[in-house]
Structure formats: C-alpha cells, structure tokens
Write a structure and sequence with these properties.
Elements lengths: L1 H25 L17 H9 L4 E2 L8 H6 L2 H14 L2 H18 L14 H5 L2 E3 L4 H5 L1 E2 L3 E3 L1 H53 L11 H4 L8 H15 L22 H19 L15 H26 L6 H6 L3 H32 L4 H5 L2 H16 L5 H6 L1 H22 L8 H26 L9 E6 L5 E7 L10 E5 L9 E12 L2 E8 L5 H11 L3 E5 L1 E6 L10 E7 L3 H14 L4 E8 L2 H8 L11 E7 L7 H7 L6 E3 L47 E5 L4 H10 L7 E6 L2 H14 L12 E5 L5
Parallel strand pairs: 1-3, 2-4, 12-13, 12-17, 13-14, 14-16, 15-16, 17-18
Antiparallel strand pairs: 5-6, 5-10, 6-9, 7-8, 7-11, 8-9
Helix pairs in contact: 1-14, 2-4, 2-5, 2-8, 8-11, 8-12, 11-14, 12-14, 12-19, 14-16, 16-18, 22-23, 24-25
C-alpha cells in the first residue's frame, strides 16, 4: 500500500504542478505583518495568541476534559491569553479579541469567563511571566506553573498564518461574488433589452391586431439611415458576432463527429467570459506566508490546500447557477426572453466548469492528504472524503451521459439518469460538507429550493390548465391521423387564455404505465369557445411514446380520445412587428414552429408581404397541412410555397392531385422552378440545388385548371429542395427603399445552418446585400 501511495503521490504531484504552475507564479508571500489590510474575521489577534498557546500545558488544567473546558478552568491559561493580547494587540483588537474569546468558551465549553479582562491581569502571576518560544518542541513537552508570554516572532508567525488564511478565504469567496456580479451585469443587459422591446411594442402599437402596419423606420421611430457609422457597426455586429456559428457554419447540427453542439459567436462570447473568469479566479492570486504555523517548511502543502479550497468553493458557487438554468420555470427566461436553447447551452457549460473544479478540488486534496502522511485507506474511511470522491465521480459521469447522441437517441433514459444522478450528487455533497458544520449547506439548499420551485410551478401550471374542478374530466385530447405519418392533437381545456406564437406545452398521460413521462409539443393553432379552448398540435411521431400513440390511433380506426394533463405554456414569441416583409421557412415537422405565426399574421394582415416556405418529403404530410393550416382559405394574403424534397421519390403533382378540388393551388412547370415565391411578371432565378429542377408537365389533370402563376395569397407546390441562399436572396431583392425583412426558421438542423450562413452572407453594402437594421434572423430549434 505504501509503495502504491508513493507512486500515486509522485504522479499527483506532477499533475498538480502542471495545474498550479501559473498559480505559483501568480502567488505572493506576505512578508512580516502585511501592509494590505483586508477585512478579516474578528478576533484575529486573539486567535494568534490562542494558536501560539495551543500546545502549552499548565499545571492547573484538568487533563481529562476537552480542550476548551481545560482552558476555561485554568487561570494560568486565561491569564496568559489576556497578557498576550495586552502585549501584542492594540486597544481595539484587545477588546474585540476578548469578546471573541468569551463567546468561544460560552459556545464550546458552556463556561462564562466574565466580561472584564482585568480579572485576569493578576499582578502576582504576571510578575513571574516567562517569554517562551511556544512553537518549539521543548515547550510542547513542558508543563508550566507560571503565566506564559509567547515570543513576538512566534506570535507574528501565527498571526501571519491566520491572516494569510483569511485573505485566501476572502479571495475564494470574493472572486465568486465578482463572478456573480459579472453574470448580474449580463442579466441586467438582457432585462434592459427586454424592457426596451416591450416599451417599443407597447408605445408603437405595431403589434396590435386592429391597426395597419407602418414600419418604425418609415414612421421615423428608428432612423439609422442618417447614421452611417451605426449602420456599419450593426451590420458588422450581426454579420460576424450575433448570427454566425462559432466555427464554420454548424450550429444546430452536431459538430465534432456528432458529439457536441457549438454555440453562436455571441453565445460563445458570453460563455467564454464566464469560463475565462472561472479560470482566472482559479489561478491567481494565492497569498502565502513565508513561515506558516500550519505547514512549516512545506509550501506545496499550503498551496495545494488553498487550491483545493478555492476550487471546491467555486464549484459550490456554480451549483445554484447550474440548477437555476436547468428548470423549465426559469426566472432568467421570464426576465430576458432569451431562448431556452441558449440557456440550455449555458447550463451545459456551467456543468463542465463546475465538474472541472470538482476534479481539481479532489486531486488537490488527494495530494494534500498524501503529502501530510495519510494513506488512501485512512482517507477513504473519512466520511467527508468518501462522499466527496463519489460526488465528483457522479459529476464526471453526468458529462458523457449528457452528450448529444444519447439525448437524441434515448431522451427518456437520459432524462431519468440526469435527474437521479443530479439529486444523488446533492445528497452526497451534504454529507461531504457535514464536517463544516453547515457553513456550505446554503448553496445546496439553494439548489434544492430552485428544483422544488420549478416542480411546484409545474404542478400549478398543470392544475390551472387541466382542472376546473376536482373529480371532473376536464382536459382530454382527441387524437386523429396516423396513416400519413402525422398525428393531430385537439386538446380541450376549460381554461381560456391568450396563447402566443412560439408557445409549447408538455403533455402527460396519467392513465398509462408511465404517468410521469411528459412530451413537449409546439402549439399549432387554437380556437376559443364559451366553454373553454381547443389547442391544436401537430406531431410527427418519433420512437417511444408518440410512436405508441400512433399505433393506438391506427388500431382505433384513425381517431381516439385520451385523458391528458397539460403543463404550460412555455416559450417566447418572436416580435415580428416593425417589419415590412416576413419570411417563414420550415422543414418537415418544423412547420409546427411557424404555423402559430402564420395563424396570427393571417388574422392581423398588418405586413406588406408574408411568405411561407415549407420543405417536406411526405405527400400525406403535405396534403394534410396544405388542406387545413396552409390552405388559402385559412391564410388569406399569405404566399405559401411547398417543396416536395423528393427524399421519398415524390413529385409536386402528387400533392396537387391529392388536395381537395376547392383548394386553389399553383403548380410549377418547366422553367418555373425558381426556388422562391414568384411574383407575376418577375424574372425567376434558379434556386434549386443542381440536379433537382422540376420536370412537371405544364398541364396536370384534373388539377390543371387550378394551376396559376399568380401567387399573391395563393398556395404553390414545387419539386426539389430549394437553396436557402436563393430563397433569402429573392426575399431581399423585393425590398424597396428602407423596407425591412424578418426571417424565422424552424426545421432540420442542416437547413437552418444553411439559412444562417445565407443570412450572414446577406449582410453588407454590396449588391444584393442589406444593412444590419434591415434584416433580422430568428431561429426556433427543438432544444429540450
């Protein structure tokens, strides 16, 4: 065991040296009495006296009692302590030190030594007082029958040791307080942006459904045209910071072999500041005493202890932030309207930083324990040690168990493991810091409080939305479809509220074998009646619960009713007011993300032009949605273009022929496949990817009579997968004067990354480009 410990000791020292080398360079010694006086704990002067008298024994002590009881009964010890404070402390420190000394004995020994220190200034005892080198081994072996005054050098060593310890503790917590201040500034910026946006919408009235649209630029509320510098800055910011992915063009798509998600550059800046602050605060500074009372002659032990303490404390400070970003009922979301996917990305990086700090904390303490002569067996039998090691192991295990492939392929397994291990980690940490007498419990209780708050609000949301009275069948879902790969949920609720585009809910099925399971669903549309509301959802079944629902619906003849519980609404609505043109782009099941906006925009009719582009591989899926949500009857004034991507060998005429006869639809012919929403008389640009041009016949029976080139407010079907760059370019070319365009996308990862790259390329002052104030890009991705 000792040979093994020695080898491990050597390896840990090498690893720790690599980790702490910058710290060693940044560390500073405190020569003599420090010139810089930080606010340390009260009674430090007394504690220096107590430390120098710690190993001294007096004849009037009762050996069988505990330390504080022995001292409280020893007049010689009390007199020596008071005399030390008289000689080594100023008047203020003396008074404060005696108060700390009295409170210590009250708390530890239940003995009141009195309020007046004069009773321990016995002239007779002080006459025989000895100046003693109390830190020597000779002094430890003696038993004194007189009052003792520690030598000044011994007292200074003890004082500097305690002062250096306090300064390091101040740094440990002060750096974390500064980190919270940094995050608070970021949060304040988000709140300010949210408030300004709300005031603009409230005062401008552009979002009101009973007014016609006038852009803020046209109305003069925003005048960037007169400020070339601000235009250039905003364009540069959106082109190179706000919009693009960190590296290359992958953002929604998984990067590095499909294992990780890369943030945008703006998200990376915020995450980078957070990581840089944590790294900087971990590395420096570590003040060190030239002569240390605790670790004489072993600066490596002293430094490893400081590093272990700081990384452990910083990890604890990061835990409430980690848990705050994990919940659905996220106060940060309410205050800032930042996206859930962005905060989820930040949550993962906070977890990585906290785990790294836990690992360094464990390694540093392992080195410290071995360096002070303990064995692994001895350390493992300490509860705080064993619980800390296991907690660190749990945190490390959570990282690979949270990687994107597992989340996408087995979400329910990921979720259950994540919750179980996270709660287990909190329990282990309570036992880990039990030895600290509750000093660090507050951070853990904050985590529990945030978790309880989140789940209580979930229950409140479920109760409000799902129940009108106890015992009644209040909320139920009518599920139809299944044959075309699409499920429609019409959920009846007795509660009436005002849904917003972008809202999503979590659906529970209480009368199943897994009633705790809940599934996110984006709201497609809604209707209000006197009895309540009907919330309509479109679901493309995946593996798991939704696939089981699909089989159940098919077995029931295409229609079934089930009792459900509904939790929500969650999500933020993108502000599409203030824009002359709106371009909504979706792919496959992502159409559910834009349908609420289509529904709202069709009702308001307050934009000069609204275009919808939907790329879909399934004929049944396309026909179902085009006959209902995207029908010209339900989307008046909105230009809808549906692309059959041919991934399943389908053609545009398949959709046209399958639509009801009363649906007015235009179908592309040869040479008319421009990949965009064409206007009568406009020159068409080829926007389909090479080799995917449509070869439809000019006449299609029985739908030929319905084909038309006029797409103003019409439905149009094309074959092939469009180029996102061409779709965006056509929309930009329609802008006149200072008109503004907003683009909202929701769909497959590759499509959204293509569109994001196209948006970045569209910023500029060259031909076919626009300034940053005229083009805004929003992206909805399924980040739960």
């Amino acid at each position: 065991m000792r040979a093994h410990s020695a080898a491990l000791h050597s390896a840990l020292f090498t690893a720790l040296l690599i980790l702490i080398l910058p710290s060693c360079l940044a560390s500073k010694h405190v020569p003599g009495l420090p010139a810089l006086r930080l606010q340390t704990r009260p009674g430090l002067c007394y504690e220096a006296c107590e430390s120098t008298l710690h190993d001294i024994r007096f004849v009037d002590e009762h050996a069988k009692r505990n330390k504080y009881t022995r001292r409280a009964s020893s007049v010689l010890w009390l007199t020596s302590a008071v005399h030390c404070m008289d000689k080594r402390c100023d008047a203020g420190s003396m008074s404060e030190g005696y108060r700390v000394m009295r409170n210590t004995f009250l708390h530890e020994a239940d003995v009141d030594i009195g309020t007046d220190p004069d009773q321990y200034r016995n002239a007779t005892l002080l006459e025989s007082c000895q100046d003693v080198h109390t830190l020597s081994r000779e002094a430890e072996k003696r038993t004194f029958n007189t009052t003792v005054l520690p030598e000044r050098h011994d007292w200074e060593v003890a004082y500097n040791t305690l002062y250096t310890w306090d300064v390091n503790m101040i740094y440990h917590h002060g750096f974390d307080e500064f980190l919270y201040l940094l995050l608070g500034i970021m949060l304040a910026c988000g709140i300010a942006d949210h408030v300004v946006g709300w005031l603009r919408r409230s005062c401008g009235g552009a979002a009101s459904g009973d007014v016609k649209y006038t852009s803020l630029v046209d109305s003069g509320s925003i005048d960037l045209a007169g400020s070339s510098w601000s235009q250039r800055y905003l364009t540069w910011y959106r082109k190179y910071i706000d919009t693009p992915a960190l590296f290359g063009y992958r953002h929604v798509q998984a990067a590095w072999g499909g294992w990780v998600s890369l943030p945008t550059r703006l998200e990376s800046t915020i995450i980078g500041l957070y990581i840089a602050a944590n790294v900087l605060f971990t590395l420096c500074p570590y003040p060190m005493a030239p002569e240390n009372r605790f670790w004489p002659g072993r600066p490596d032990q002293e430094l490893s202890r400081y590093i272990a303490d700081r990384t452990g404390i910083m990890c604890f400070w990061n835990l409430p932030l980690l848990w705050a970003l994990a919940g659905r009922n996220n106060v940060v979301l309410w205050l800032t309207s930042w996206s859930y996917s962005s905060l989820n990305m930040f949550h993962r990086w906070v977890a990585r930083v906290a785990t790294a700090q836990a690992v360094i904390h464990s390694l540093a303490y392992l080195y410290y324990g071995l360096a002070t002569g303990k064995t692994l067996k001895h350390l493992w039998h300490k509860q705080y040690w064993a619980m800390g090691v296991i907690a660190t192991g749990v945190m490390v295990a959570l990282l690979p168990l949270s990687l994107r492939p597992l989340r996408e392929s087995a979400y329910e397994l990921f979720l259950r493991l994540h919750i179980a291990l996270a709660l287990a980690c909190l329990v282990l940490l309570f036992y880990h810091v039990k030895v600290m007498d509750g000093a660090y419990d507050a951070w853990l209780w904050w985590c529990i409080g945030l978790w309880v708050f989140d789940h209580l609000l979930r229950l409140v949301r479920i109760a409000i939305l799902s129940f009108s009275s106890i015992g009644q069948r209040n909320t139920y879902a009518e599920i139809t479809g299944g044959g075309n790969g699409l499920l429609r949920f019409a959920i009846q609720t007795t509660r009436r509220f005002d849904p917003k585009p972008g809202a999503y809910f979590f659906l529970y099925t209480p009368y199943t074998l897994s009633p705790w399971e809940n599934h996110p669903m984006t709201l497609g549309s809604w209707t209000t009646t006197q009895k309540g509301m009907t919330l309509n959802f479109l679901i493309a079944p995946q593996a798991g619960a939704t696939q089981r629902m699909k089989r159940s619906v098919i077995r029931s003849g295409g229609r079934t009713n089930i009792n459900v519980l509904l939790e929500g609404p969650y999500g933020e609505s993108h502000d599409l007011s203030g824009f002359d043109h709106v371009l909504l782009i979706s792919g496959g099941g992502g159409v559910t993300g834009i349908l609420p906006y289509v529904y709202t925009l069709a009702q308001r009719q307050c934009h000069r032009r609204v275009d919808v582009v939907w790329v879909v591989p399934s004929v049944g899926y396309a026909v179902d949605v085009c006959a209902r949500e995207l029908s010209p009857k339900t989307t008046p004034g909105i230009n809808v273009r549906v692309y059959m991507s041919r991934e399943q060998g389908v053609m545009a005429e398949d959709v046209v022929c399958a639509l009801p006869p009363d649906i007015e639809v235009a179908c592309d012919g040869d040479g008319d496949d421009d990949g965009t929403l064409g206007d009568d008389g406009d020159e068409s640009d080829t926007a389909l990817e090479e080799g995917e041009q449509s070869s439809l016949l000019k006449t299609i029976s029985p739908s030929a009579a319905r084909a038309t080139g006029d797409t103003d407010g019409k439905l149009r079907v094309s074959s092939g997968r469009p180029s996102m760059a061409a779709v965006l370019s056509r929309a930009i070319n329609r802008l006149e004067g200072r008109e503004r365009l907003v683009v909202l996308s929701c769909g497959p990862a590759a499509m959204m990354d293509d569109l994001r790259a196209a948006v970045c390329e569209s910023y500029g002052d060259e031909h076919g480009q626009v300034s940053g104030d005229r083009l805004v890009y929003y992206e909805d991705s399924f980040g739960w």
